[in-house]
Amino acid sequence: MEFVILLVPFLLAIFLGKIIIPYIMLITYKKRLFDPVDARKLHQSIIPRLGGVAFVPIQCCLLAITMVIVYKTNFVNLGIVTWEIFPMFIMLVCGMVILYIIGIADDLIGVSYKWKFVAQILVASLFPLSGLWINDLYGLLFITYLPAWVGIPFTIFVVVLIINAINLIDGLDGLCSGLVGVGCLVLGSLFAYYQAWIHALLAFITTGILISFFYYNVFGASKRRRRIFMGDTGSMTLGYTMAFLAISFAMNNFAIKPFSEGAIVVAFSILIVPVFDVARVIFIRWYKGLPLFKADRSHLHHKLLRSGMSHKNAMMSILALSLFFCIFNIVTVQYISNNIVVLLDLILWGSFTLIFNYIVNKKKGQLELNDKKEDNVNVSVIN
């Protein structure tokens, strides 16, 4: 019967998304609240970017209503230590509301990245305040238990990193929603396997609303194929949700779920692509002396597009790569140590990056060669 409390809210999230997002699109088109078109953006037409406004209300309302119904009706005994788990979810909701407000302001009038960074540190600090922080590395770098004075600041850093990684990966239709949707589906299934039902509930509700958004973001609505972006309102709150789920899975706390040796590797598997990509881009900017937070076209999805891939093929390739890392890590942690699995992840990521760079450079060289041939032909015609 526990799976009923996952399936029904999941379907309701899809249904509510199908109802609410078209209304948001209608308002944004009437009020002309469009994403600005510039040289860095991949789209060259007017598209609204307030789709993420639908996420937090649906997530919070369905989560709260489901839990009240379950506890009031005694529909099923979830076996949850409420005094330890509920503070974590209360702080999650507080943090989501703060990011929700900052995100709407940024999508409408723009907010300085410095103030967004301050807000991200603030909401990241709410997790340790509720008792949620990374307290065990499960042997990574031969470290197990982390004391609070190390684990708490490390958790804050990880949360801010994940929020920005998800935010920066949102540069291609369906990419951010697809990555987070796959991540929530994987983590939700794992939470359900370990009978951590409330965490699984949050994951499946988020997956449900993202299925609806994915449709409107990638395929559009009505015969005019009107699409919508999630904006910072959506990407930041989704990053915060993913950080909460990943850290909850990674934390060594029997009140959340039973102990598993590869928890921390599995928890962050879905985030390997966005986090590694952001780390690579920031390192290159630092190495070249460029501003670290200035937007450019050096992310993985930009490379794939320059290699000649279509938008949808590039998006699907990155989703497949993330899913590969998830499955690979879930399987391998059962047989080999966490350190070796992480080392293999780094080797595989480096190999993929080299392959992508080779394809892009080959494509660029071919285009330059064709341009030279065309110039030579034009000169011969003139002569």
From TrEMBL:
Q: Name one GO cellular component term.
A: plasma membrane
The organism is Sphingobacterium lactis
GO molecular function ontology, one term from the record:
metal ion binding
Q: Which cofactor does it need?
A: Mg(2+)
The places in or outside the cell where this protein is found are:
Cell membrane
Where does the protein principally reside? membrane
Q: Say yes or no: keyword Transmembrane present.
A: yes
Protein's recorded name: UDP-N-acetylmuramyl pentapeptide phosphotransferase/UDP-N-acetylglucosamine-1-phosphate transferase
Per UniProt, where does Mg(2+) bind? Answer: N167, D232
- Transmembrane region positions? 6-29, 50-73, 85-105, 117-134, 140-163, 175-194, 200-218, 238-256, 262-283, 314-336, 342-360
Spell out the InterPro entries in the cross-references: Glycosyl_transferase_4, PNAcMuramoyl-5peptid_Trfase_CS
Which segments of the protein form a coiled coil according to its record? none
Q: Name one GO biological process term.
A: lipopolysaccharide biosynthetic process
Q: Which UniProt keywords apply?
A: Cell membrane, Magnesium, Membrane, Metal-binding, Transferase, Transmembrane, Transmembrane helix
Q: Would I find Protein transport among this entry's keywords?
A: no
Q: What is the lineage of its organism?
A: Bacteria, Pseudomonadati, Bacteroidota, Sphingobacteriia, Sphingobacteriales
PANTHER family listed in its UniProt record: PHOSPHO-N-ACETYLMURAMOYL-PENTAPEPTIDE-TRANSFERASE, UNDECAPRENYL-PHOSPHATE ALPHA-N-ACETYLGLUCOSAMINYL 1-PHOSPHATE TRANSFERASE
